[in-house]
Fold:
Amino acid sequence: MAQPTIKDVAKLAGVSISTVSRVMNKSKPVSPEAQRKVLDAINKLGFKPNELARSLVMKKSNSIGILVKDIGIHYMAEMIRGAEEIGRMYHYDILLSSTYGEHELEQRAIDFLYRKQVEGVIIISESIEPETIVKIKEYHLPFVLLDRFYKSADLHTVTIRHREAMKELTDYVLSLGNRSVRYLRSSLSYDFSKERSLGYDEAMRAHDLTPVKWEADGDDAEAGYKAAEAFTKHLDKEPFDAVICENDDLAVGVMTYCYDHGIVIPKAFQVAGFGGSPYIQIFRPRLTSMEVPYYDIGAVVMRALTKTLQGKNTLDETLYLPTQILVGESTEERK
Structure:
């Protein structure tokens, strides 16, 4: 049996097609009697409008595209979850496309989202190609960029104040009575990395202490593991109180090396990380970390984008969200 059409609804209700359209889209007022007839006809026929055709006519699809590097990356998944839940509150559907960091896939994904008539785009990346930004602008799609490493004065984003957050974390570690506090940073030259490093410097100098930094060959747990192998070789002769890592992955690598080689944390030295990754809650000892509110970032971004689409806001500023320290056993008093 063929699906009922808008013509069938109009015929059964005894009204024009334009009247049916006005009732469905609430675009113009109609008489209560005409509205009742149309709604009765829709119910009797079980009529469901063609959403694609409707979006083409109305130029409003109630959908937002999310372009993500990889949904398997935990913090990206948290951002998506925050964006999706807020989007649902405002009756927006989500079209998700993963690019896996490939430039060609990014370009194809933008074309796909444009063909699907999305009203706006959220980009969650670690290193977005400038050509992708250009392509989105050419399509005149409102967009928000969530990229840990990309900064631009003319792009709206939601983030944290990395420098202040690392300073707060370092102040906390120093408040525990530590004085020889080392900093393990990655070898990657990204803006957020530099900001966190400066935050550590500020805290140390504010306590009249000399910053001492080590550099890992990368930013993952393996790099942290190898770095720990190097800086613990002379632990007996050159002890230190604590090491603060640029991110949780490096910190977990350090703690894993210590576990494998009988170095007891925090008895030998304390360890802190940055990010508040979910897996630190099951790692033992639990890692003290500065939590980044990834879910909230996704939620706030979606809220800002929906307000823009409703004409209540413009995407012309960067929003900064608060952070908090998650205290674990890795910074307990050494006994």
Remarks:
- The CA atoms of residues 291 and 324 lie 5 Å apart.
- The longest helix spans residues 74-89.
- The two ends are 78 Å apart (CA to CA).
